[in-house]
Amino acid sequence: MNKNAYQKYKTTSVQSASREKILLMLYEGAIKFTKLAIKAIEEKKIADRGMNIGRAFDIIMELNNTLDHKVGGEVANQLEQLYMFMMDQYTKANISGNPEPLQSNLKLLQTLYDGWVQAVEKIKVENQNQEDKKAG
């Protein structure tokens, strides 16, 4: 598959994705870039470290910016605090070259991702049950 076709596919898959799918894709991206940043630190690749930390940081900032405090209430407030902590950890890791803040963020991201996957699955099941009731 040539690069342009792949890029078109990726763009289309993002544009046609549900909000839930986009949320999961953002978490997947943050996990990926955090892992790449840890690898860059281990390999002493400073430019790669900065680039990957920057990408992960941007994703977390975007997740934070899209929080709906009116709908999310206390959960949104807690997520905001967590995202702010994570952005601080990325900054510390980028300045110090220490992988520990990144490893801490990676654990948080994986826990949040797993929780969102379960929540999305639950919503799908509930929606399917409602569809079945309407059809029945």
Describe the structure.
The protein has a single domain (19-135), classed as Flagellar protein FliS (Four Helix Bundle (Hemerythrin (Met), subunit A)). The protein is elongated. 89% of the residues lie in helices and 0% in strands. Helix 2 (19-42) runs antiparallel to helix 3. The longest helix is centred in the last third of the chain and has 36 residues, at 100-135. The model has no long low-confidence stretch (mean pLDDT 90). The protein contains 5 helices and no strands. It is mostly helical and 136 residues long. It has helices at 3-15, 19-42, 46-65, 69-96, 100-135.
Features:
136 residues, 5 helices, Four Helix Bundle (Hemerythrin (Met), subunit A), elongated, mainly alpha
List the helices and strands and how they pair.
Blueprint: H1 3-15, H2 19-42, H3 46-65, H4 69-96, H5 100-135
Helix pairs in contact: 2-3, 2-5, 3-4, 4-5
* Percent range for β-strand residues: under 5%
Helical content stands at over 70%
Mean pLDDT: 90
Tally the beta strands.
0
Q: Give the overall silhouette.
A: elongated
Order of helix and strand elements from N to C terminus: HHHHH
Radius of gyration: 18 Å
State the fourth-level CATH superfamily. Flagellar protein FliS
Derived structural class: mainly alpha
Describe the largest sheet.
Answer: none
Total number of domains: 1
The first-level CATH class is given as Mainly Alpha
Helix count from the secondary structure assignment: 5
Low-confidence stretches: none
**Kindly, what is the distance between the CA atoms of the first and last residues, rounded to a whole number of angstroms?**
44 Å
Tell me what the CATH architecture is.
Up-down Bundle
CATH fold-level assignment: Four Helix Bundle (Hemerythrin (Met), subunit A)
